[in-house]
């Protein structure tokens, strides 16, 4: 556990020192949401009706901007091979790196989502379900993204390949994340949607690190 926390702290320090990935994700999120009303029109009722879907889709795309470099930098400088040979299980290394990616990239998106939701005329009472759905859904997307990032290690144009791999897998998370917000908007219980999002996360926590570690080992051979 101590070694995993050290890896988490190392990756967070590198992410905060560079800052470009987190800033790029947040700026893409803000600009894309701000531009959307120009495409569909400024009619408040329409924006309120489609706002949750807009936020989820753009947040999903923004969180993938840094996935290509989740393992690539360590792969290029040889650090990943040393981590694979360390006493710490590679699955624990994957969990630590995914946690750092989520904290540095996805968590800022969750933080600014309520402000952007207000820009789309979303009712204030819908903001807590929106934030909760994002908090449950985005870690699953990061775990799925780790599998894609490991599969494209050493490939050219990896960013495109990661999106092609991860986006189809993330569609169920998107559906139930939007469904939770829509249920709250219609004054219907959103608990089933939250439970399904939680189930996705609990399934991804053991399965995705195992698959990611297997892909990393294959890339290092």
Written description of the protein model:
The relative contact order is 0.15. The protein starts with a helix and ends with a helix. The chain has one domain. It is built from 9 helices and no strands. By secondary structure, the protein is mainly α. Helix 2 (20-40) packs parallel to helix 6, helix 3 (44-63) packs parallel to helix 7 (127-151) and helix 6 (90-119) packs across helix 9 (191-220). The model has no long low-confidence stretch (mean pLDDT 83).
Overall mean pLDDT: 83
User: Uncertain spans, ≥5 residues at pLDDT below 50?
Assistant: none
> How many domain units?
1
- The separation of the N and C termini measures 27 Å
Radius of gyration: 18 Å
What share of residues is helical? over 70%
Largest sheet properties: none
Tell me the number of strands: 0
Order of helices and strands: HHHHHHHHH
- Number of discrete helical segments: 9
Look at the helices and sheets and give the structural class: mainly alpha
Features:
221 residues; 85% helix; mainly alpha
Gist of the model:
The chain is an all-alpha fold and 221 residues long. It is 85% helix and 0% strand.
Please render the helix and strand layout as text.
Layout: H1 2-18, H2 20-40, H3 44-63, H4 69-77, H5 79-85, H6 90-119, H7 127-151, H8 158-185, H9 191-220
Helix pairs in contact: 1-6, 2-3, 2-6, 3-6, 3-7, 3-8, 6-7, 6-9, 7-8, 7-9, 8-9
